[in-house]
Write a structure and sequence with these properties.
With about 240 residues, this protein is an alpha/beta fold. It contains 7 helices and 7 strands; from the N terminus they run E-E-H-E-H-E-H-E-H-H-E-H-E-H. It is about 35% helix and about 15% strand.
Length: about 240
């Protein structure tokens, strides 16, 4: 329906659109985390449940990830926030709610803080303290030589480290977000501490909601259905009672 979507560098953004059987022009855009893509199981499960509930979805792979064009080494939070803006450009006429997992959560905070076209925000195990994350996870990896978590398809670039360091934390952007915001985080997340979500929740404006899932890891592997239920119920509440 939306044809080819390209970012500001002309790179094609791969996406999967699932239209719900409704005339409503509401759409959920789903963004993944670092080393991920649009076909992460938790995003697929969430998109299917939303479509069943009557909400259209668009799962996207940021440039340099999945089947999108671009180099993985160039994939940074700042660039992905620009990618998201280009996707929203293509959704002209639709009411856009954005769901971001992990690093995609930080992308959502940056974009929503400056883009009034986003009418609702959901952070799933969202990364908040970016500089701390880079230091914690990759302090023993040499940029432009080593790899993220020893994944040979995911080289760690200096551009990625520089961007994470320059951003530092997205907490400072929270006060600029003026739309309903749901944050979901698991207590057993060993990649992005639940404290990240708690920290930014304190700075967020109303209406906001925080949902803690006991025992859930970073990708909600054993708690996908619980996460999906929380998100779908919240989304329907925002759409029906905005």
């Amino acid at each position: 329906m939306f044809g080819t979507i390209r970012n500001i560098k002309g790179e094609k953004i791969d996406y999967t659109f699932k239209q719900a059987h409704t005339a409503e022009k509401n759409i959920i855009v789903l963004g993944h985390g670092v080393t991920g893509n649009k076909d992460r199981p938790l995003l697929v499960a969430l998109a299917e449940a939303l479509a069943t509930a009557g909400v259209s979805t668009l799962r996207m792979s940021f440039s340099g990830n999945g089947d999108s064009e671009g180099r993985f080494e160039a994939a940074t939070i700042s660039k992905e926030a620009e990618d998201l803006g280009c996707v929203i450009n293509a959704l002209d006429g639709w009411n856009v709610l954005y769901v971001g997992h992990s690093m995609g959560g930080a992308v959502g905070v940056l974009r929503a803080s400056q883009d009034s076209r986003i009418v609702g925000l959901i952070s799933l195990a969202g990364m908040v303290h970016t500089a701390a994350f880079a230091q914690r996870e990759f302090r023993d990896v040499t940029p432009d030589q080593g790899f993220m978590w020893d994944e040979l398809t995911c080289p760690l670039s200096q551009a990625f480290i520089d961007d994470m360091t320059a951003i530092g934390t997205v907490v400072t952007h929270a006060p600029s977000i003026q739309v309903p915001w749901l944050l979901v985080h698991g207590t057993a997340d060993e990649v992005v501490p639940i404290q990240d979500s708690l920290n930014i929740f304190e700075s967020a404006n109303e209406p906001k909601q925080f949902a803690q899932i006991e025992g859930a890891d970073h990708v909600f592997s054993e708690h996908t259905s619980e996460m999906v239920k929380i998100v779908v119920e919240w989304v329907l509440e925002q759409i029906i009672y905005p």
